[in-house]
Fold glycogen phosphorylase.
Amino acid sequence: MGRDRGPRAATVVHVKAIRRFSVRPVLPEPLRPLSELARNLRWSWHPETRELFQNLDPEGWRAADGDPLRLLGAVPAARLAALAEDRRFRRRLAAAADDLHDYLTGNRWYQEQPAGLPAAIAYFSPEFGITAALPQYSGGLGILAGDHLKSASDLGVPLIGVGLLYRHGYFRQSLSREGWQQEHYPLLDPNELPLSLLREADGSPSVIALALPGGRALRAQVWKAEVGRVPLLLLDSDVEENAGGERDVTDRLYGGGSEHRLLQEMLLGIGGIRAVRAYCRLTGHPAPEVFHTNEGHAGFLGLERIRELASDGVEFDAALESVRAGAVFTTHTPVPAGIDRFDRGLVARHFADDAELPGIDPDRVLALGAEDYPGGDPALFNMAVMGLRLAQRANGVSTLHGQVSREMFAGLWPGFDADEVPITSITNGVHAPTWVAPEVFRLGARRVGAGRTEDALALGGSDRWDSIAEISDADVWELRRTLREQLVEEVRERLRASWRERGAGTAELGWIDGVLDPDVLTIGFARRVPSYKRLTLMLRDRERLTRLLLDPERPLQIVVAGKAHPADDGGKRLVQELVRFADDPAVRHRIVFLPDYGMAMAQKLYPGCDVWLNNPLRPLEACGTSGMKAALNGCLNLSVLDGWWDEWYEPDFGWAIPTADGSGTDEDRRDDLEAAALYDLLAERVAPRFYDRGPDGLPGRWIEMVRSTLASLGPKVLAGRMVREYVGRLYHPAAEAQRALVPDAARELAAWKARVRAAWPGVAVDHVETVSEGPLNGTAELGSTAALRVSVALGGLDPSDVEVQALAGRVDTADRLTGTSAFPLKPAASPALDGRLLYEGSLTFDRTGPFGYTVRILPAHRLLAQGTEMGLVAAPAEASGEAAGVLMR
């Protein structure tokens, strides 16, 4: 026998499970409704439901980070048994369950509209920010998509959301001791998320398949999240039937190389349509009439819809017209570099006969994404260009961004000024019930009633927001201090955790107890960290910033957060620069950087700040919704006039940072000028107004700005307003166009377009003459008229195929028409002697100053959304008639 050699050091063995299960709790029968309440994500914006879960186990709620599913998995059985016997808790539970049932089944705004709205709309996005408990977002695009779904639910809009399920989400951010960003990718188990698997009638998972080159296949199962009334379908390629490379297609958001991204976008677009079809087949949900592509990542959905029609015998051109009619495309990027572009050869390989969409000519696919316009790259396939060509209706996400988008994509509509490019704009909004702090909601409910407050947040309407005037200055100021105090506590807790991750010991961190002050003017800055958002503009003059932070009478404090893309070392250097400044013991109690910016942090950060700072390079901020979320909590905006702030800024509720955009200003000079303007505003306008107190000890003028922010901006920045605009301006017209484009009508339109394009080289304005009431001589009297006679050649087209227009407006120094209005000319009773067609009309001189007109010919058909749609126009040659302008006095 061997001797006992005494205790030995334990050997650490890392054992990996070969299979993973999620063991769910068995709830007592009286508590079964808790499961439905936890699985419908309405809890994330419904205070009463969250309070119910919090009261179930307050400590467990905090440990679960406010996630009801995690909470239910951790509550002791004894506690559940006690609650099952608690009549008061059961009554609250029954009330919450009844409220959810009424919310899901009752008529809402959409159901009260006149008939004709779409039976359903499919909404595709590469990311969705619904709640921190479902981390499938990276930034503004995903948060906007989540807010769109939640507001559609509140309004009763029959949306189906479609995205991908990323097993590692985006990434979690931490800092090294030196302040360098580090990325972590925790594995997400769908069984532990608020999701359910879409199953066939026999109980097996519903599987979507795409064909890949070489006889391979990409398969995905479909998970469903319940976002109130809206189902969100998320495709997941991590299934056993896939090979390793295909399993990893949905591994992480915005990761991988070019082919990896292409496969993600094919799965999102093509697979997403197939997932929607499966969902509607299995549940009886109405089939979508409108398909909304939120940015170009999902653009391939149009190709799958063309394939569906082709399989029913509809030719490609007719199918294209039908697909365009029911499609809406929203662009979010203001710069070409922000668009996904792929090598044409790579795309061609994935749409060859042995891969996806067999039977469709790959050259037709490539033509949809071709950059065949001046300045384009013929070697690349452009996802946004394809999105625009596959959608009859398109929009940017603010008024300024709509203008930028029209200029950026003008090459797709040659012959038209950018102002006439058919891209409109609908300014983004934010889902107020998600972003308004409970304290703000309770104050409103106390003053005007909970129902009226809920309506104001969900539906908007200035009449619902005017009641803010009834709230006293003292109540407003007490609310603001409470929110600031909560932020200070949150910042200290997060900062302490961050420093521990950076390797600091407890003995080093006593100073954190003095970080920030609940009575000091607090500025927030949080967003992604691409260079154009200028995270470090505030550091341009560090000495001046330090003086502002440490001012003995009017100090500032700044809370900063943001993630750089893992592949963006330039962005990481900006983060490190900010972190190192904030680490300085001289200022670290006044400026902090919080890592791992996400929804949970944002919901504390926006309400607790007094001023929200935004200083992008104008006009590169498409919308910038973070300032909207802050505004809904009474936070004032200090921003460059870009995105939404450009169209809604007023001095009553914020400040505008001047833009140094002169053509002779280099980048360094521009940043110096704009940083100096920022410092001046903080020192001379913002801080004095915050610290200027009246006899009652309150900053009356500041409180008035808070009140103006809530009353004036509140109704505008709501996602409810945004979704109603989408319904009225885009979804409803798209549904009507889709219904009109039955196969025979689509064939007719496709044939007509082909005939018009073939004949267009022969279409011309030959001669223009003006017959006035009196002599023109380069001038005309206001209110006088002139008769126009125009001779045109139609190249064999019928007059019904075109519209001949006069286009009148102001003339600039280069003879360009601006602020134009168009009116049609009518065919004359008889043609000209040479057989040319004559058109006539009258021109009224309705404004003073330099005035001009021209004449043009556009295609015209009842099924076109607008005359510019085809990008065809015929205008006068230089010698076709009289000068195209008269000077009015």
Summary: Residues 1-13, 879-889 have pLDDT under 50 and may be disordered. The CA atoms of residues 153 and 230 lie 6 Å apart. The chain has 29 helices and 31 strands. The radius of gyration is 30 Å.
